[in-house]
Every structure is written in structure tokens, then in C-alpha cells.
Amino acid sequence: MTAPLLSLQGLTKAYPGVIANNNVSFDIGEGEVHALLGENGAGKSTLVKMIYGLVKPDSGTMLLRGQPFAPAEPRAARADGIAMVFQHFSLFDALNVAENIALGMENPPAMNDLAARIREVSENYGLPLDPFRTVGDLSAGERQRVEIIRCLLQDPKLLIMDEPTSVLTPQEVEILFETLQKLRSEGTSILYISHKLEEIRTLCDHATILRLGENVGECTPAETSAREMAELMVGSTLQTPERSGREFGEVALDISGLSVPSPSEFGTALKNLHLVVRKGEVLGVGGVAGNGQDELLGVLSGEILTAADAVKKDGQPVGRMGPTARRKLGLLTAPEERLGHAAAPDMSLTENALLTGSVREGLESNGFLKWGLTQNFAERIIEAFDVRTPGPDNAARSLSGGNLQKFVIGREVLQDPDVLVVNQPTWGVDAAAAASIRQAILDLAAKGAAIVCISQDLDELMEISDSFAALNEGRLSAPRETTGLTVEEIGLMMGGAHGMEVAHV
Amino acid sequence: MIVLEKRPQPSQAWSMATPAVAVLATMVFGGVLFAALGKNPIEAIQTIFWEPLFGEHASYYRPQLLIKGAPLVLIAIGLSLGFKAGIWNIGAEGQYIMGAIVGAGVGLAFYPLEAWYIFPLMIMGGALGGWFWAMIPALLKVKFGTNEILVSLMLVYVAEQLLASMSLGLLKNPQGYGFPGSRNLQSYDSAHNAELFAGTGMHWGVVAALIAVIFAYVLLNRHMLGFHIRLTGEAPRAAKFAGVHPSRLILFCLGTSGMLAGLAGLFEVAGPAGQITIDFNVGYGFTAIIVAFLGRLHPVGILLAGGVMALTYIGGDIAQSKLGLPASAIQVFQGMLLFFLLALDLLTNYRIRAARKEVA
């Protein structure tokens, strides 16, 4: 092996109360796809921010092709050939592709020249993209292409990609991988951040695993099993949620012919949805973000009202009922956005327990609140779901994402619902907490509740759901039994490559 | 370099301390202002804060505190409910005027009949007048999504025109020798909001203000509606998820604040002011906004803040006559109070840290 492209030596970065990176060292070779693997909060983001010049290390050095490398800002990093595709896109919806790319350049060329270069690069790398399309009309996969092309125009030596596949369908992932492999064959190194083990095994040459800010091991992904890597990541043996063979009861939730216009300008309209969930059944709803997940949750929680008989619980039309009336009937929901939607950030956990618990837990009488009972309820949630917090008087925003998620899910589960709808129940939650949340959902189903689990994590859906359907541009595919579904079939249900062409390289 | 760092939890201590610190800062910088105007700052501050309570003529000024404080507290309590939910009624001044016009109108309609039920009817009239005036921005917001800040504010000027028209026309005293203004309710026993104990300044408006404080406290701390009000202000999406109807909340909050402002107007016109005149309103509706924030939108805080604000009003008057301070200097002084309060508010959620410059 030749000299490494980028060599990290003893990088350390501490924030008040937490050491994000502790003495991390590894090398990225020329033309290598290097995976950076770790759970949420393991320090992956801090590390790449140091490489990209967004954060300065407290100690340690970096060498780029043998020369000391200490970018003071992203511009300096870019000048040295480092490019980065962020997980969250920074694009303006109202501008077209070429205008968006020009905005990120130091000296943008004339628009026509730039458009020509965009076409050239996009065809070279099998990422077809029309420079004059408005970004607001693009799918998530296409937006990512804009970001990637923006980077490729700089002719980078090292391309950093932060969880690039979390917004893609399996088919789109395949296209992306072909592009990355072409880049590698041209000598570009790629630092690939992910916690999805299977794709790392397919794509990456080398992997560095971070846990609690420390480099805990390196491996060659192709020769290591996903389970071994996962255990390195978590630092202990993993508990796979158990599911007992289940019998399904009567139909608990029935949606038929549900159509709802988009509630906001950049929302998604739901088009003619049909679904049936029986008692004891877990229905997984997959799909790329922004294809109607939030709207589906809103329709079920009662935040969006519909025709009365479009949504039925145990045969009773509930489409015109508000959230409180639905809770009374036993239809509970947990939205994706924890802060600001599922919970009020500046209110205490006790107050947040009251937020959805008032009806079913009898926390009010004639409108007057029973704070004592409410606090008991909050304490029960904290206890049963192992929420790490000094006590129920603490504000919701003081909890870490995973702990708040456990609180939000626990709050609904403990209310003993007949139908529970959750959106992204384990998003941003570490593996151990995710496993316990999934177990709680499965236990609830075993007791006879009907569950709808909306998620973008396909592995999660395959693990816990009995049947699977996918949302694609506001339409729901016909649900199918999970056992025997292949990844290709799931991808097609999710809308294939969303009209994107497969690369012809 | 100084950086602001977000606290993981809002600081309870600062939340309690900021009003006091803001009052102190206002004294210091107000003193500088008065010194720049060529007055002795210590004497001026002492005149404003000391004189009304313990000065030579305190026995005259102390009842004034209740008379000035009661409408401020009454209005501010109503406003605070809306402000907590992010519903901004800026037009309490107009609702105050309408309460006074309708309430006085009811009383004058009975003139010269003497009966026990006239005053209660006037109270209802005052409440309804203010409520009705606040329902205009409320309904427009609910039906057409208009901005309640603008509509309620503009309606203040409409109400002022109506007030002028009333004192020159419909409600003009027929025996008033052509002077603008209604009959004086102080000399109409059944309609007079007299002092409950002579010489104390304690009238029905003070009682109403105290009841409003208790009512608001119970509502916000012990009742679902109050919880929903706070939730809507903190996290509107979470409130919708919890089952709050945003439009009902808008109608309730604007309606209640209008009603309380209307009551304040009625108690004023039937008591201390006595009659409807062109310049009947003196800005209680606007000052109450400062009182609401100075009291941290908390009922008990508002009670205290109403007292402090009434003090600066009375003390300001004394300073004007005794030291020759211009009235605008007193207004700047009151404005400073709100300014410092809002600025210091930052410390509840952030802490200031001296940051080392990071070394590359």
C-alpha cells in the first residue's frame, strides 16, 4: 500500500461534559472507500467536522499526503481537496440546480458554462440531472445528486459522505454505489459514514469503528460479519427482539379510500389509501421520507380530519374526531418529531405526561388537573422504560434524543392502547434503546393491540412487522406479508428509483 | 470574547430575579438620563419611588396607587393569558374605551332612576363592550387568518374616534352647557363606583383585579384550559397533537382579555374618572402590556408589577410638578423598564461565559 492520503493522529475534541473524540488515529488510503462506523453519539460527526474544518481539534494532528493539515474553515479544507456531502441538504427549494450549485462556489462561472459542466460531470458519473430544474420538484435522491455534483465539480481528493443512504430507496442506493465505485477507480478516496452494516460490507474497503469517541477497532468489512461489526459498535452482545408466533384477531383499524390534500405547501397529499390492521398485528409502513408519513400519522392522530368513515376503529367511524376523542377510544399515536410535536421542549416531563395521558389515565376531573397522579404517571414511564433523567421535574429538552424517545413511546404504550401508531420509533436512538423500544412494541402486539409502525429503517420493519406496505408520493402499496419479501420487491413497493435513470457507465 | 451558552433547563433563579434586576438597572440608567437633563438623579429617583409611599403627602398618594394599579392589573391579567399562548392582543386600550362607553351608556340609560341593579348591569355592559371589541380581531383571525396584532391595534384608533363622537353626541350631558362629556356618574348614586372604604382608594375595580389574579392563577396552574394555553405558547404543534382547538383558544384568550379590559374601563368611568370625555383614556391598555411582561406573565408577578408601574405613574407626576421633569422623560423611564426586562430575560435561558479564543 502506498502512503496514505490522509492520516489522523491522536485527534481529541472535548465539549463541556463530554469527550466527543478521544485520541482517534487512523489512515485513509489513496483511492480507498473507508467506512466510519458507530452508533449515534459515537463521535463520527465531530471527527469529520474536524477534517472538514468546521471544528478545531483540542489536540492531535492531521497529515494530508504527508503535509501537516489544519484547515481553519471549510473553505480551506475545500481548497485542499476535501469535499463533503451532508446528511441534511443545504439547498434552496425555489432555485434551480445550477443556481444552487453556483451559490456554493467562490467564483461561479457564467450560468451556461456552469450548466454545461454540470451536464458533463453528471453524465460522466452516471448521475443524470437537468441543471435547470427547480430543486423543490426533485426527489430526495435527486437532491442528493445535486450535493454530490456540487462536490465533484471541485475535483476532490477525499469525498466525505454522511449517512448518504438514509434518504434513498434500495434502487437509488445501487445507483449511488456505482457512482462511488467509479470515483474510487479514478483514485478519489471516500470516507463513508454509516451505521448500516450491510451496505458497508458491499461498498467499503476498510472500516474504522468508533465507540464513545474512541477508535475501538478496524476491520475489512467484506471479511467480517455484520453481527461482529455491530457488536464492536455497541460493545456488547446484541439482544434481538423476540417475537412469539401470533394469532391475529378481528380488524382493529380500517382505512379505506382515504384522500387528503396536502396540509402545507411542501407537504404530501395522501391519495386513495387502503389499509387494514388486525388485533395483534404489526403493520410496517416503509418509504423514503417526505412521501406522506407525517400526513398519515396526522390522519390517524386526529390532527388532520377526514371523511368520517375513511378511518374506522373497531368498525366505528373516527375520521371526524379530534385527538382527544380518539385517545378515549384507544387509538394512540407517537409522532416522529420529538421536540415540539410529541413533546413540548420547555415543559417538564410531568407536564409532557399530561399532554397525551389526561384522558386515559384520568388525570383531570371537570377540567381540573390532578398533578399528583400526573407525576406518578410520569414516574411510571421513567421507571418502566429506563428513561435516564434526574426526575420528572426536568424539562423535556434536557433529555438526550434517545431518552426522550423512550419517554414518548413509553407514554403511549403504558396507556394500554388498542391501536398504536408510531412514526420513526427508534430514529436517532442508540442500538440498546432501539431494541428495548422494539421489544415494547412487540409485547404490546402480543397483548392484542394493533400496531402501525411507520419507519424509514427497513431492517427495523423487517424485524418487527408481520406485514409491510410502502408509501410513495402519498400512495400506499398493497400490504404484503413480511416473510419472504425480498429487498428488490420492497424497493419496487417504495417506488423503485423514483424515475431516476440507472447509471450507464 | 463573550459567548452565550444555552442552559439545559431554564433557570428558576434568574426567572425570579430578572424583574428586580431590571428595576435596579432602570433606576441606574434612568438616573443617568435625569442627570443629563440637569436634575439631581438621586432626588429624582427618590421622588418617583419613595415619595408616593412614605413622603410628606403619602396619605394622599397611597390610595392613588390602588386607583392606578387596579386597571393595570386587571387588563394585564387578561393580556397575559393570550400572550402565554402566543396570541397578541395589543388593542386593550380600545377594549378599555369600549367597556367604558357601553358600561356608562347602560348607566346613563337609566338616569335618573335609582335602583340596586343598575351598577351590576353596567358591569355586564362594560364586560360585553370590551369582549365585543376583542371579538372583531378574534373572528377575523379565526375566519380569515388576519393578524390580530394589527387589527386589535387599529381598532384602538376606531374606539378613540367613537369615544370622541360619544362625548360630543349621543352621551353628551344635556345639562352640560354645551361642553363635551357625559353626565358625571359620581353624582349618580346607583351608577357610582364609589370607594368601599372612604379614603383608601379601594373600589370595585380593585376587588375585580384581585379576583382576576386568583382566577388566572387557578386557571393556569390547576386547569386543563390553562395547560392548553401554556402548551400552545410553548409548542403549537404539540398543542394540536394534544387535542387543542387553536381557534377556540384564540376566541377564549382574546375574549377574556377584552372582557377584563372592558371591566377596567367601566370601573374607571364609573369611579375615578366619573364621566365619558374625549380624553378619557390615558394609556392603561398599553402600559398593561409592560405590566404583563414585567410580571413574567405570572398572575402574582403581574400584581406586583402593577404596583411598581402605578408607583412610577404617581411618582412621575410628582417629579413633574416638583422637579420639573418633562413628561416624556418619565415615559422613557417606563420604557426602559420593559427594555431591560426583555434584555435580561435572555439570562433565564442562556448563561454568559467568557470564552477563550480557540487556538488553531
Automatic annotation (TrEMBL), chain B:
GO molecular-function annotation terms?
Answer: transmembrane transporter activity
| Transmembrane region(s) | 12-37, 65-83, 95-111, 117-140, 149-171, 202-220, 249-267, 273-294, 301-319, 325-347
Pfam families listed in its UniProt record: BPD_transp_2
Keywords linked to the UniProt accession: Cell membrane, Membrane, Transmembrane, Transmembrane helix
Q: How does it sit in the membrane?
A: Multi-pass membrane protein
Q: Provide the primary localization.
A: membrane
InterPro entries per the record?
A: ABC_transp_permease (IPR001851)
Which subcellular locations apply to this protein?
A: Cell membrane
May I have one GO cellular component term? plasma membrane
Per its record, how is this protein called by name?
A: ABC transporter permease
